[in-house]
């Protein structure tokens, strides 16, 4: 893998990269200290010098994946300024990331980020900023923004999760259905704005 094999030269970044490589290859069950140590060719205690067990490893991996996801979405939307194209491009980017990295997306979305955690808070603010960019011009209050974000997250995550599990079996194109859903969400955001 090109990662350091000597325990003394190991960094937290090496551990996180190896964990993501394991996740990509084997899925969520590979996200553990013992498996990552094998990937790096070291003994598990060497990892504990950098990350304190499976829970801290998972958190570090999730935060890295969130940063990758947000960078991917920014890249896919950076040249778009018009609504609703910007919102739709963000929605498409989320689904495309999930298709490219299904295990990463699943782990990322199943981990609860806490706003009181400094590292998680930074990611939450960045995600909120990206979402606000996608719905700029709707002039939502703080509560309306929270409602809209929850609605969009539930709809896109729900669609992607059901699609990834193979439960969308009708012959209708899932691409077409997803695009229709994004269009409907744009109308729903306008409804939220007009409600209060």
Describe this structure in words.
By secondary structure, the protein is an all-alpha fold. It has two domains: 1-51, Arc Repressor Mutant, subunit A (Orthogonal Bundle), CATH 1.10.10; 65-195, Tetracycline Repressor, domain 2, CATH 1.10.357. Helix content is 68%, strand content 0%. The chain has eight helices and no strands. Helix 1 (12-26) packs across helix 3 (53-77), helix 4 packs across helix 8 (174-195) and helix 7 (142-164) runs antiparallel to helix 8 (174-195). The longest helix has 25 residues, at 53-77.
Summarize the structure.
This protein is an all-alpha fold and 196 residues long. It is 68% helix and 0% strand. The protein is globular, with a radius of gyration of 19 Å.
């Amino acid at each position: 893998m090109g990662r350091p094999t000597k325990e003394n030269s190991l960094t937290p970044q090496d551990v996180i990269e190896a964990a993501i490589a394991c996740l990509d290859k084997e899925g969520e069950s590979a996200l553990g200290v013992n498996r990552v140590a094998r990937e790096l060719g070291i003994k598990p205690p060497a990892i504990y010098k950098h990350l304190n067990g499976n829970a801290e490893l998972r958190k570090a991996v999730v935060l890295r994946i969130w940063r990758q996801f947000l960078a991917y979405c920014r890249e896919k939307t950076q040249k778009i300024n018009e609504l609703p194209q910007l919102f739709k491009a963000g929605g498409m980017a989320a689904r495309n990331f999930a298709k490219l990295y299904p295990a990463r997306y699943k782990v990322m979305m199943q981990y609860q980020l806490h706003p009181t955690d400094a590292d998680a808070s930074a990611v939450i603010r960045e995600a909120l900023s990206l979402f606000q960019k996608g719905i700029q011009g709707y002039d939502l209050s703080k509560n309306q923004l929270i409602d809209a974000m929850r609605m969009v997250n539930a709809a896109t995550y729900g669609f992607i999760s059901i699609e990834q599990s193979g439960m969308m079996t009708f012959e209708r194109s899932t691409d077409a259905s997803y695009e229709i859903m994004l269009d409907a969400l744009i109308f729903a955001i306008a409804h939220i704005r007009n409600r209060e």
